[in-house]
Design a protein that fits this description.
Length: 284
């Protein structure tokens, strides 16, 4: 595997950054996870726009342009001989000292990793997955805007650990008001009487690229999509439930906190949207 690190592609074993990089010391940086299908990166422009927006929001100016970064992502796929791939693109504050002052970090770091990823077993896509509600709440938007996809994912990791301790692959996170926000790495949707519901931006969610693709696909099919605050009650009484994310794509959820959702199997709208998403991604 060849990894792009601060100006050059190097073998995986040589892909290193300074321990004084503030991305390592403080999680001071931003990232994106992207998928490539048949050699083409899905929604590449949208991902890079979001990455640059996240960087700008934390006063971080990338050392390359959007066009240059996009070209490097495709180069990373090509150099690793991949057609279907998962890419992790990182922009860090760069090397500084042990203090917090980001202005002492002169040159932002850029890392691009192109490989493969498999988050969940195939069986879960066929039969659905169980999730649980975590006790760790989503960080309030007024403390850290969830639209900033930062390197500090500790909030999500703590919730993830709760689920793993109980044998769950994913954990549902509520916001400080008790409304459903998202899972630790994915957005959430439910189907209710033929309508598609998902939490709104103000619930404290990352505005997922796959989330938006699913909303667009549903609208094209004439499905009413509603972005609204939801509680666990809405999930317990839903006809269907699924998660979306760049790595996960669309995965059905058939249980929450031990309670069966719908009839306990992936529903027709979930299956239909998954098929439509695959067609879109494969032909993007």
């Amino acid at each position: 595997m060849l990894v792009y690190v601060n100006g050059s592609f190097v073998p995986k074993d040589e892909a290193v950054v300074s321990v004084f990089d503030h991305g390592f010391l403080y999680g001071d940086g931003v990232f994106e996870g992207m998928r490539a299908y048949n050699g083409k990166i899905f929604k590449c422009e949208d991902h890079i726009d979001r990455l640059f927006d996240s960087a700008r929001a934390i006063c971080l100016t990338p050392s390359c342009t959007k066009e240059e970064l996009s070209s490097l992502c495709y180069e990373a796929i090509e150099k690793n001989g991949l057609k279907d791939a998962y890419l992790r693109v990182i922009i860090s504050r760069g090397e500084g000292d042990l203090g917090l002052n980001p202005r002492l970090c002169k040159t932002p770091g850029v890392v691009i990793i192109a490989g493969t990823i498999k988050l969940y077993p195939t069986e879960m896509y066929e039969k659905g997955m169980d999730v649980m509600t975590g006790a760790t709440p989503r960080i309030p938007a007024e403390a850290l805007n969830p639209k900033i996809k930062s390197l500090n994912y500790l909030n999500n990791i703590l919730a993830k650990l709760e689920g793993l301790e109980h044998g769950m692959q994913e954990t549902l996170m509520l916001n400080s008001q008790g409304f459903v926000a998202e899972a630790t790495g994915d957005n959430i949707f439910i189907v209710k009487k033929g309508e598609l519901w998902t939490p709104p931006e103000e619930a404290g969610i990352l505005l997922g690229i796959t989330r938006q693709a699913v909303i667009d696909l549903a609208c094209e099919k004439g499905v009413q999509v509603s972005e609204r605050n939801m509680t666990r009650y809405d999930i317990f009484t839903a006809d269907e439930c699924f998660l979306t994310g760049s790595a996960a794509e669309i995965i059905p959820v058939t249980k929450l906190d031990g309670r069966v959702i719908g009839d306990g199997s992936p529903g027709p709208m979930t299956k239909d949207l998954l098929e439509a998403f695959h067609s879109l991604a494969q032909g993007n």
